[in-house]
């Protein structure tokens, strides 16, 4: 499988909660395993267990952001203010919020239920995804190994980078065209 090198993609999950106290935190899941995404413009995607294992074991410098905005940093793994782990459910996060106005505003919005989603940004190393094409319906992409860049808290927990995802799908097509035609004849992929 081929993807465009260095392309950062973002995906969303829907579990987030505020933990208040002396040091307010946000905890949740930035990704949930084995759940189909919505149609991302010709394909659906599944994050498989183990997809984050290598990135986490390598001690990747991952940041927690508001809406993927690098000007609004909530925490960072190398600073010890963001904890990430892969469990049986998905990519869990726990971020200790800074004493900033942006973090306080976000905490209020999460507590009210106005902001209820989380997401993650990633790139795919060579061999990190697997594509299958069906006769009917969208293609399927499985994320089996990713380079994790950020987790984000967002009010719009959707798949905002469909265009990026489509370019990734386009990159997969040439390498899979021969396989497709072997099984499905002259059908175009």
The shape is globular
Ends apart, CA distance between termini: 14 Å
- The structure class reads alpha+beta
Low-confidence stretches: 158-168, 176-189
- Our count of domains comes out at 1
Order of helices and strands: EEEEHEEEEHEEEEH
Structure characterization notes:
This protein is α+β, with helices and mostly antiparallel strands and 189 residues long. It has one domain. 21% of the residues lie in helices and 38% in strands. It contains three helices and twelve strands, in the order E-E-E-E-H-E-E-E-E-H-E-E-E-E-H. Strand 10 and strand 11 form a beta hairpin. It is globular, with a radius of gyration of 18 Å.
Short structural summary:
The chain contains three helices and twelve strands; from the N terminus they run ββββαββββαββββα. The protein has 189 residues and is α+β, with helices and mostly antiparallel strands.
């Amino acid at each position: 499988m081929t993807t465009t090198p260095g392309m950062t993609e973002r995906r969303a999950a829907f579990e987030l909660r505020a933990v208040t106290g002396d040091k307010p935190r946000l905890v949740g899941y930035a990704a949930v395993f084995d759940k189909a995404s919505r149609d991302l413009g010709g394909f659906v995607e599944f994050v498989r267990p183990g997809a984050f294992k290598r990135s986490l074991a390598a001690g990747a410098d991952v940041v927690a952001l508001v809406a993927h905005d690098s000007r609004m940093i909530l925490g960072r793994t190398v600073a010890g203010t963001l904890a990430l782990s892969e469990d049986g459910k998905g990519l869990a996060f726990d971020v200790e919020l800074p004493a900033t106005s942006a973090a306080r505003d976000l905490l209020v919005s999460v507590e009210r239920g106005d902001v209820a989603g989380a997401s993650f940004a990633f790139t795919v190393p060579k061999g990190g995804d697997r594509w299958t094409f069906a006769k009917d319906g969208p293609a399927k992409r499985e994320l089996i190994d990713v380079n994790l860049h950020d987790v984000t808290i967002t009010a719009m927990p959707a798949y905002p980078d469909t265009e990026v995802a489509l370019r990734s799908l386009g990159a997969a097509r040439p390498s899979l065209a021969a396989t497709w035609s072997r099984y499905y004849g002259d059908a175009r992929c």
